[in-house]
Amino acid sequence: MTVRGEPPLDCSRCERLVTFRSENREAHAGWFNAPVRSFGADDARLLIVGLAPGLQGANRTGRPFTGDFAGDLLYGTLSKFRFARGSYDGRSDDGFALVDCMVTNAVRCVPPKNKPTGAEIANCRSFLEDRIAAMPRLELILALGRIAHDSVLTAFQARKSEHTFGHGNRHLPSDGLVLYDSYHCSRYNTNTGRLTAEMFEAVFAAISSELNSA
To answer: Is the pTM of this model over 0.85?
Structure first.
């Protein structure tokens, strides 16, 4: 079944990622092991763009940021700012739902060592472009990390030199659309102190304030 803004589950655009998926299917037959589709409703005003599915997170569960530390922090924060309802339990069938928000990734297949190549990012960008186009009420995008930030800017044909990535930075890459940046909510970033829960929440406080004042 074709879904606008989403890759087919047998997407073959990136040879290295297809090979890695196949290896993981053999090693973990019960995992999702396919391109991970976006989570949330098309009529959301907020789109959150991450990097790529985690090997033991979204690649295992089939839902973005579900089943690993990054999801614990992201979905806990979304709940705190009322962008979600229900209890997040790290499973795709936990009944957790997003409110006026959608979560996706710049790259939809899990990459080895969590590092997609430039070509793989480019190959997947049309899905991001289509995803954005399929959201008629979209007002604000949050990029988690520099790769997501750059991919969003490229999708809008905006100059990176005019929109420098930085935690908490706010940009206007296109008429009527706002882009916020945050460091990625990975365990590495939180363990090293690059990102704290307070820093992450500050970005969502700004986003919530902006959407609620619109």
So the answer is: yes
Residue 173: partners with Cβ closer than 8 Å, 6 or more residues away: 152, 153, 156, 158, 163, 179
Question: What CATH superfamily is the domain 35-213?
Answer: Uracil-DNA glycosylase-like domain (3.40.470.10)
Q: What are phi and psi for residue 71, nearest 5 degrees?
A: -70, -35
The DSSP symbol for 72 reads H
DSSP string, 73-138: HHHHHHHHTTSEES---SSTTS--EESSEEEEESS-SPPGGG---HHHHHHHHHHHHHHHHT-TT-
Q: Whose CA is closest to 36, among 19, 49, 27?
A: 49
Identify the CA nearest to 101 among candidates 180, 152, 40, 185. Answer: 40
Residue 199's φ and ψ, nearest 5 degrees, are -65, -40
Would you tell me how many other CB atoms lie within 10 Å of the CB of residue 154? 17
Residues 54-108 pLDDT 10s: 999 999 999 999 999 999 999 999 999 999 999 999 999 999 999 999 999 999 9
Q: Is 45 within 8 Å of 137 (Cβ atoms)? A: yes
Query: Structure tokens of 39?
Result: 């989570």
